[in-house]
């Protein structure tokens, strides 16, 4: 019996993703965002640490992507003051003060629920602190997104935000919402509904410097 060599197509997949990401970057730039491509999260993390001065304060809202890159630990280890409301000691307590400090930091690191190939950034929040911080507050905003966040339209981005990002976050926090059980958004009116604020950043807001880092990997929800 002959055994055929296993064929690896990962190079072709990566090359195709790179084309889409680079096209998206060009369209983000047309909308006045700074935008950069990275082949993996390790290189993106190095660039972020180089971009942020060691004496700067950094705000990090509820981003899975940022935590997958271990940026909280990396920044704290080298001396940055990091404000983030996922600190274990805040569990079950009011975190409003910390969320406000996040939004008043020198740098704001966050992910995105979806980014269109034409350069629009879509997010859904329950509290609203994350979308607020991305639009106005910090002097410098860095948005980090893996290839899985790329969509072809705003409508597709909103659908992705609800059906994928929101449902997975509902499951993460054991929210008493239908989507946490079914994995599908039903536009519920549950008391613990987490889809409460939708933001679409069509162009970079005038007074906020925003850098978008697109990574050729699957990251976050």
UniProtKB/TrEMBL annotation:
Residues 21-204 form the LUD domain. This is LUD domain-containing protein. It comes from the Bacteria. It holds the Pfam family LUD_dom. It comes from candidate division WOR-3 bacterium RBG_13_43_14.
